[in-house]
Amino acid sequence: MTISALKASDLSSPSLLWASGFGLGFLPRAPGTWGSLGALLVWWFVIADLNPLTQLVIIATYFGISWWACQRVCELFAVDDAGEVVADEVLGMWVALFALPQFWWIAILGFVTFRFLDIRKPWLIGRLDRELKGGLGIIVDDLVAGALTCLGIWALVIIFRALSINVL
Questions:
Q1: pLDDT at res. 2
Q2: Could you tell me the sign of the dihedral formed by the alpha carbons of 113, 151, 42, 167, in that order?
Q3: 141 — phi, psi (to 5°)?
Q4: Distance (Å, rounded) from C-alpha 128 to C-alpha 105?
Q5: Cβ atoms within 10 Å of 131's Cβ, excluding its own
Q6: pTM score, whole prediction
Q7: Residue 34, class by beta-carbon neighbours within 10 Å (0-12 exposed, 13-18 middle, 19+ buried)?
Q8: Contact indicator for 33, 25 with CB cutoff of 8 Å
Q9: I want to staple 82 with a disulfide (CB 3.0 to 4.6 A). Which of 4, 76, 106, 124 is the partner?
Q10: List of the chain residues with pLDDT < 50
Q11: Which of 152, 157, 149 is nearest to 167 (CA)?
Q12: Cα dihedral 130, 132, 134, 137 in deg (nearest 10)
């Protein structure tokens, strides 16, 4: 287990405040899960009802700010991908649930699938995690995990609709 150089007292840094999901990354045990759960709640109560274009603008804006914040944290605190940095999980969850209908089973499936892919890092996700460094490296593997999650859930939704299975 790696000991991070980051401390909750460093949250006065705007880049760390943002990158840590406004402190969620400092919660005990499994900071990525806390960041993902926080993102899920924001999606459920704020983002899910918005039209896809607005969701895309939010995701793109969040991506840009998070890339900058994560890069800044790497530079300021001499860390690479510290566990306390959870902006990548927030972004990944929002991508995972992009434009999907707001149903409890979709939220749970999106959360579980995204966390599985983010933790296990299969295939391209693991390669990106190993090869890219800095702010972009922190974010890109979660972006891909979120995209794969979203595609998988959309495939299920389309199959259910084609089979006239009423789960929506």
A1: 47
A2: negative
A3: -65, -35
A4: 29
A5: 10
A6: 0.93
A7: buried
A8: no
A9: 4
A10: 1-2
A11: 157
A12: -90
> How far is residue 12 from each of residues 8, 15, 99, 100, measured CA to CA in Å?
9, 9, 34, 35
Q: Which residues contact 87 (CB under 8 A, 6 or more apart)?
A: 18, 19, 20, 21, 35, 62, 66, 69, 70, 138, 139
Could you report the per-residue pLDDT of 92-126, keeping only the tens digit for each?
Answer: 999 999 999 999 999 999 999 999 999 999 999 99
Residue 126's SS3 state is helix
Q: Which two tokens stand for residue 43?
A: 């999606």
Q: Vertex 37, ends 120 and 135: CA angle to 5°?
A: 60
pLDDT in the model for residue 1: 39
Helices (H) and strands (E) counted in the chain, each on its own, are: 7, 0
* Domains of the chain, residue spans: 11-162
The structure tokens listed for 149 are 């999650």
CA separation for the pair 68, 17 (Å, rounded): 12
